[in-house]
Amino acid sequence: MNQRTLLASLLFIFILTASSRADQFVLFDVTFTFTQEDALNSKPSQSHYYVKSDRLNPERPKDWTSPVDYRNGTVHLRLEVLEKPAGDQPTSWSVCYIPYKGQNHGYGCIGTGPYTTAGVHEKDLSMTTFWQNNDIVWNEGIKEMHLVLKDDHNLHAHKRPDPEKFFPTKVRMTLIQVSKGAKYDPKLVPGLAAATK
């Protein structure tokens, strides 16, 4: 093999490796306090915290299927519970993707799963198995996100007879989208280490 062929082969391998590298982006990173009054007065739906387009990453892709395939990748959900009422009441958040264009029900949701303590709760979820994920037209993009406070039986917190077990709470929620075939890398998330206590 001559030097020119060797260089061409090495360049090809470099390009192939670079194109298959880990791709991820932060869809949103919000810190907020959520009170019973907030839950009762949120519109159009109660117990919802709305992350509108202006609070989403402005560089999020319009098309989640190409040229980088996020639709068939994973999402890393990081929930940092900073404050919660005393006790060990199981609490959860539904995290709903609201697309620019939907079909059928028009949106889909992942969930934090129930937690009982303050601290950091994390999980990786497949983008193709969560509730109503096929009701989103992924190549049209995501318009906003709805975060819904619930108990561990999927009941909205404001409907509980004991709302004092859920409110007030303060959380930081970060959603990181990871492309198909890649793995979540926390070192690529801006400001994450600084917030970890």
Written overview of the protein:
The strands form two sheets. The protein has a four-stranded antiparallel beta sheet. Strands 2-7-4-5 form a four-stranded antiparallel beta sheet, with no helix packed on it. The longest helix has 17 residues, at 3-19. The chain has a single domain (22-182), classed as Jelly Rolls, CATH 2.60.120. It has helices spanning 3-19, 36-41, 192-195, and strands at 24-34, 48-51, 74-83, 91-99, 108-111, 119-126, 142-151, 169-178. It has three helices and eight strands. The model is unreliable at 5-20 (pLDDT under 50). The chain is globular, with a radius of gyration of 20 Å. The chain is an alpha+beta fold and 197 residues long.
Shape: globular
Q: Which architecture name does CATH use?
A: Sandwich
Overall CATH class? Mainly Beta
Percentage of residues assigned to helices: 10-25%
What's the Cα radius of gyration? 20 Å
Output the CATH topology.
Answer: Jelly Rolls
Strand segment count: 8
Number of separate structural domains: 1
Strand percentage lies at 25-35%
Average of pLDDT: 90
Topology as a string of helices (H) and strands (E):
HEHEEEEEEEH
Question: Uncertain spans, ≥5 residues at pLDDT below 50?
Answer: 5-20
Taking the alpha carbons of the first and last residues, their distance comes to 55 Å
Structural class: alpha+beta
Give me the side-by-side strand order of the main sheet: 1-8-3-6
**What is the count of DSSP helices, taking H or I runs of 4+ residues?**
3
Sheet having the most strands: 4 strands, antiparallel
